[in-house]
Amino acid sequence: MNVKPHMAGVLFSGGQDSATCLAWALERFDQVETIGFTYGQRHDVEMACRLTVRNKIAETFPQWRSKLGDDHIIDLSGLGQISETSLTRDIEIEVHETGLPTTFVPGRNLIFLNFAAALGWRRGFSDLVAGMCEADFSGYPDCRKETLDAQMKAISLGLDWSFELHTPLMHLSKAGAWHLAEELGGAGLVEIIRHDSHTCYMGERGREHDWGYGCGSCPACELRAKGWESYANGL
User: Fold this and answer.
1) CA distances, 57 to each of 60, 68, 175 (Å)
2) Nearest to 29, CA basis, from 19, 21, 39
3) DSSP character for 95?
């Protein structure tokens, strides 16, 4: 195995959080590879948006261009087949009887991390970067730091190699994520994220709001819009 200690893999969906995390990783590592997942998500338009975001970051920031390495797409369609959720079925977004929103895809982040680490083991990197956020996690138990720490410990033991997960947004609000993007790449990065990233659960790209494209009414859009409003008002 050719270990590359200054290389990282970013779990990159093409949304606001993962785009910010990609910039964060490019600022800190010598080489960065991106990892995307297809799992039968309704908002699969994000898979096209993620390439646009990657390309525009490379075009806009020459200091990061040489660091941006390969992009990997991992097919996890089996996850969508066993998930009866609003993200993998044409069903209404609401609160499930468990108390969790129906947008929760059970095991998704845990599975993502397993596959990302398996890829890292083959590619030679043990640093993973992801956009999980405890402050705005909407009740998702697989976004909690305690959950992620336990998962990474199991991965490191199971692969007999020490992996580290970096979650730069863990304790930030959505407004804080906008501010971090500005700190990393100024107005240029903010504009790429605002215009080209995709967050809307409905996959809506027809209408552009101040905060970007989306239906404007799903939980992801509402959270993004609220964060943008706070950010735009200097909060």
Assistant:
1) 5, 9, 21
2) 21
3) B
* 24 close to 180: Cβ distance less than 8 angstroms: yes
Kindly calculate the radius of gyration of the chain based on its CA atoms and give it in whole angstroms.
17
Q: Where are the domains of the chain?
A: 7-197
56-76 residue pLDDT tens = 999 999 999 999 999 999 998
Give the pair of three-digit tokens for residue 196.
Answer: 């080209």
- Which CATH number applies to 7-197: 3.40.50.1000, 3.30.310.50, 3.40.50.620, 3.30.470.10? 3.40.50.620
- What is the model's pTM? 0.93
Mean pLDDT of 169-185: 96
**Residue 74 to residues 136, 146, 208, Cα–Cα distance (Å):** 26, 26, 29
Contact 116, 11 (CB under 8 A): yes
CA distance 201 to 221: 8
**What is the tens place of the pLDDT at every residue in 129-166?**
999 998 655 668 888 999 999 999 999 999 999 999 99
pLDDT bracket for residue 1 (50, 70, 90)? low
Distance in angstroms (rounded) separating the CA atoms of residues 3 and 90: 43
Nearest CA among 30, 29, 37, 31 for reference residue 12: 37
